[in-house]
Amino acid sequence: MEVVKFQQAQLINSDLDMYYAKTDTPALCRTSSLVEELGQIEYVFSDKTGTLTCNEMEFRCCSIAGVAYASVVDESKREGEDGKDGWRTFAEMKTLLEGGANPFVDLSPVPGNEREVVNEFLTLLAVCHTVIPEERDGKLHYQASSPDEAALVAGAELLGYQFHTRKPKSVFVNIQGGSYEYEILNVCEFNSTRKRMSTVVRGPDGKIKLFCKGADTVILERLSEHQPYTEKTLVHLEEYATDGLRTLCIAFRDVPEQEYRQWVAIYNKAAATINGRGEELDKAAELIEKDLFLLGATAIEDKLQEGVPDTIHTLQVAGIKVWVLTGDRQETAINIGMSCRLISESMNLVIINEETSHDTHDFINKRLTAIKNQRSTGELEDLALIIDGKSLTFALEKEISKTFLELAIMCKAVICCRVSPLQKALVVKLVKKNQKAILLAIGDGANDVSMIQAAHVGVGISGLEGLQAARSADVAISQFRFLKKLLLVHGAWSYQRLSKLILYSFYKNIVLYMTQFWFSFFNNFSGQIAYESWTLSLYNVVFTLLPPLVIGVFDQFVSARILDRYPQLYMLGQKNAFFTKTAFWLWVGNALYHSIILFGFSVILFWGDLKQATGYDSGHWFWGTMLYLAVLLTVLGKAALVSDLWTKYTVAAIPGSFVFAMLFLPLYAVVAPAIGFSKEYIGIVPRLWTDAVFYLVLLLVPILCLSRDFAWKYYRRTYMPETYHIAQEIQKYNIPDYRPRQEQFQKAIKKVRAVQRMRRNRGFAFSQTENVARQDQARLIRAYDTTKTGARPSGY
Known about the structure:
Elements: H1 2-13, E1 28-29, E2 41-46, E3 53-64, E4 67-70, H2 75-78, E5 88-89, H3 90-97, H4 114-127, E6 132-136, E7 139-143, H5 147-158, E8 161-167, E9 170-175, E10 178-188, E11 196-202, E12 208-214, H6 216-220, H7 230-242, E13 246-254, H8 257-271, H9 277-288, E14 293-304, H10 308-317, E15 321-325, H11 330-339, E16 348-352, H12 357-376, E17 383-388, H13 389-395, H14 398-410, E18 413-417, H15 421-434, E19 438-443, H16 449-454, E20 457-461, H17 468-472, E21 475-477, H18 482-520, H19 533-543, H20 546-554, H21 560-565, H22 571-574, H23 581-605, H24 620-642, H25 648-653, H26 655-674, H27 684-688, H28 692-719, H29 723-733, H30 743-758, H31 777-782
Parallel strand pairs: 2-15, 2-19, 4-5, 15-18, 16-17, 17-18, 19-20, 20-21
Antiparallel strand pairs: 1-21, 3-4, 3-14, 6-7, 8-9, 9-10, 10-11, 11-12, 12-13, 13-14
Protein name: Phospholipid-transporting ATPase
Cofactor: Mg(2+)
Main location: membrane
């Protein structure tokens, strides 16, 4: 069995459908002991960023001074509802910056017209960050702590504001042909509590400014009065959120010299604090991050990996529940859930955002009771559960956890937002402890390792976040879409093959050794064996070695194409349909039946010993060898009946094994006695292999045994077919699929419902690595001087 499992793992490794040419990465099965569990998965726990998405951020849109800009603008967005406020392209923004014709009728209020606001906005993107520029092959590459950061700086470069050099105390930006130096005075770093980052800079004109970017919720409450662009920016944020984009708000303020000198003293004191340094720096930042002026917002697309929506939908059709555990904020996670078909428009969302343990407990109990009451009346609607990290902390407490799990299991999809790596593992362990189901966890980063190790089967994606997840997992793949073939094809095949291998292995041994047991009643339990001892040993080692191996490695109950077309066939593995107690005892009963028929007919035929044509008695070893070959042919015939796919290896293993036995045994029976062992075979070859009764027994008795099996197989397929029997016939006769297509109708419904549901949802993007105890991004960037060769950090 271990050999078969190893070969199944090798088949996964060598599958070209799971090879990713872009990174030259094949699938890698690190352990062969779990291959059959791939066919019995009921829950998939997935990370979002880098697993469902590419983790390649692209600067798509921005809203500046209440005007929306995008790289490509759809004609429907060119004109607003009242003929104004239409979207503009990035090319039109460049024209505005270069002093061309102003495409806007009205000039904006303070701090100036659109041109000044756009200049301030793009300057902020090019200056307020912790990115390190590197020049390779004549091109500028940005090294950032998060892909979002790099995308924003690349977006500024695209629009003519190129950040190209970083020194310990300043950055240099190319603006319309001229290089400008901005002195970095202080950096207030991003963390998940602040949800923003700020940079205090002294511009080329000597003025001090505070540049700030962050989540809309935290930026909007820190704005000064009389903001001209807030309402229009919020409308644009809603549109971006509906499209599943990650958003940030951009704001700034001028800082008087006197105010800065007072503040920097407080900041330096906080920076020198040993205990609680992070908290002190946050308090200092609060003092200066106020009275901001809103410039606009950015929208970044975290592209979904190819084939993700289809894969998630197919897994759900296959009866697998998909839970997404992500560090992103709720609105972004919901929108990604919509775009990847985890959540459909017809689903009712159960959103848990509570502040206390008591409120969380009450909310979960109320919703659970309401859902149970609704379902008791016969109303069955699909539900999706969305819970944030804070509420999840309370939901995982011992008193509430089982109630929370009961609610989650009733939902078709679950999204946990703003969760820590520890919470990911705790959610997996909660399901693992309370559900008798096989769990799979899939992720791509070091923060997913605990979740991957907590599940029964861990799958790592070798992506942009390194190989920690891939190295910690049982199976490594390079794209999420490969999970579909890994589970629905390789998993289903492996489970069915190993089930058949185990049952057949029991069967073939019971048939042979029960004939020996029946013989003991005729020899007064003297210990006399029916078969020659060496021949008996060769039964499992040589003559019936290949059939279970070939069935275990090459058998396919249906093809990969049919498994992909009908994912519901995967449920056979979840229900353990091929390896039940009933199936086991039926195989045992069948083996007993075959052994009785084989032994009974041979004893009746040889009752009182069979006389040969020569006049001699046939003898004990004549009868024993004939019975042995009849057993062998019956067992190989049974292997032929249960094989669903015949290949050249199947032909070599099943008919080939019997041909080999018929050639090897007479040769062995001649050679072995001549060299001093197996003397029971002396003179048996000319008597046995020339006797017509021997061939008659070989022909009739196995046919008599297997006729019952064949009749039962016919009856079952004709009158009580299983789902896979029907699928096998569809495959054999190549019957086309006539299921109705409703794609156009579903697209129209999706568009209407998405607008209705997403109107109030907004997401933000900012995923820097953070360490609360040591906020050291600022120290790191001050250690770089990219004007020097190699641009390696010094003194850090």
